[in-house]
Design goal:
Layout (H helix, E strand, L loop, with lengths): L9 E4 L9 H12 L6 H11 L3 H12 L3 H15 L10 H10 L3 E5 L4 H10 L6 E3 L12 H9 L7 E5 L2 H10 L2 E5 L7 H4 L6 E2 L6 H5 L2
Parallel strand pairs: 1-2, 1-4, 2-3, 4-5, 5-6
Keywords: Hydrolase
EC number: 3.-.-.-
GO molecular function: hydrolase activity
């Protein structure tokens, strides 16, 4: 008599702004580079709105808007990444609780990030945060909102899209999840556009990663 193999569930995590609170330091560094060391509230918000789309596009846009050599901004971002080697960005509140809950439920914690692999692994190691797999564009995949990275990490871990959820803090995270057939959760960042302002389904919004706990409890 054949038996149905057990289903494997997973949370697909974005990294910056979702697992790790990377944006404050990045935003301040880019703002200071644009404004000769000054970090005013309005200037910081300009940068924050851009980086929450993507850091690469933010650097490009800021250089264009302010007539700067983008190398100045690239150097500022590189300086932040260098500091993270010895002082990693802090974890987002609630992340250890959810990661542990996923593991206790028999699920997998999978990371899909735009960061380079070495940098991503170093940040995770700095917090001794154990995840089950990490995938990034350097592995040969296009960036989000293309769903390829999500589909690839699910496939190589034996997880069906319908048995996974994804969480991220940017519209591209939600868009990639929908395109992969994965239920998305939009982690709202205070002071930045909410899902209703970015055109996303407001039912996906959670104010904290702890909003995933109810889903994990049903596995």
């Amino acid at each position: 008599m054949s038996t149905t193999p057990p289903r494997t569930h997973a949370v697909v995590w974005d990294m910056g702004g979702t697992l790790l609170d990377t944006y404050p330091e990045v935003d301040r560094a880019l703002c200071a580079a644009v404004h000769d060391g000054r970090v005013g509230a309005d200037d910081l918000r300009e940068v924050s709105v851009l980086t929450h789309r993507s850091i690469e596009s933010a650097i490009r846009e800021l250089a264009s808007r302010h007539g700067l050599d983008r190398g100045i901004l690239d150097d500022a971002y590189a300086g932040v990444r260098d500091r993270w080697k010895t002082r990693p960005a802090p974890l987002i509140d609630g992340v250890p609780d959810v990661v542990d809950a996923v593991r206790r439920a028999g699920g997998l914690n999978l990371v899909v990030t735009h960061r380079d692999r070495d940098g991503a692994l170093a940040l995770l190691a700095g917090h001794r945060l154990r995840v089950d797999d990490v995938i990034c564009p350097g592995d040969g995949y296009p960036r989000k909102p293309d769903p390829s990275m999500i589909l690839a990490v699910l496939a190589r871990n034996g997880v069906a899209p319908g048995d996974a959820v994804a969480v991220g803090d940017r519209p591209i995270d939600v868009q990639a999840a929908w395109a992969a057939g994965v239920r998305p959760f939009f982690l709202v960042t205070p002071g930045l556009p909410a899902p209703t302002e970015t055109g996303e389904d407001p039912s996906t919004a959670i104010p904290s990663v702890r909003g995933l706990l109810a889903t994990v409890a049903d596995w």
